[in-house]
Fold tyrosine--tRNA ligase.
Amino acid sequence: MEQPLTEAVESLSVSDPEIPQSSNPNPTHLLTPDEKFQIVRSVGEECIQEDELLNLLTKKPEPVCYDGFEPSGRMHIAQGVMKTINVNKLTSAGCRVKIWIADWFAKLNNKMGGDLKKIETVGRYLIEIWKAVGMDLDSGKVEFLWSSKEINARADEYWPLVLDIAQKNNLKRIIRCSQIMGRSEQDELTAAQIFYPCMQCADIFFLKADICQLGMDQRKVNVLAREYCDDTKRKNKPIILSHHMLPGLQQGQEKMSKSDPSSSIFMEDEEAEVNVKIKKAYCPPKIVEGNPCLEYIKYLVLPWFNEFTVERSADNGGNK
């Protein structure tokens, strides 16, 4: 039986594991703009636009990166380990990272049954996991912000921005952004879910973000923010740095799914569970594309350990 999240928050222990800070050992103030660019750019599968990113890192010592998440249940390793690797790379390059705990958004999207107390419990739980993994929280460059508290504190700034974004876009354009909620354009959306993309777009400007560091599945709303800058003649557009989405463990799964435990490795999984899942994972010989095991090695194992050993018998050439 799974341990309830409220109990897990109380029982979770925080250790001090070794965590990769960056491939560049130099202190931030010794890094050149090009070195910072290489570190930051390595976080994203896609960057819109690279010249804007280099210019930002050249002119601004501490650019603001925005990331966010809905507290919606268990955390898989893409969210736990990969996000930690990415955040630590960003802070090593001098960036400040604002992590938006989207509790109101989780309610709009009916996560945890829309119960804000449960959503808050999950949010606190996920923060504790990142502490345990080794996210760079001692540098003062990472800040967790609860959307409900921040929006209430500056409602006169937030809601006019949301309404202006809503006014400048038609319904069809907003529905195209439904992917950000894990929905499709064909799904029957509530009025609250239609409002969701306008709010997420507003978050970027509300948090004064220079860089949107979200997954590829959030690309459409980030592009919406850049288009909004064109509509309102804003000079500095947010740079989109979209990280790779780790696939599920089974064939044809574009990303891990919390609703399918066999497709994901969760941060709370015991070693035996992880071994079983990996052994059952889709891993065809001599096929690289769409192979989740190779993707995990590329995006998790190598950035963390800088090496991966394939154990083989001497008859087969020995370890490699």
Q: What stands out?
A: The chain has 13 helices and six strands. The domain at 33-245 is CATH 3.40.50.620 (Rossmann fold).
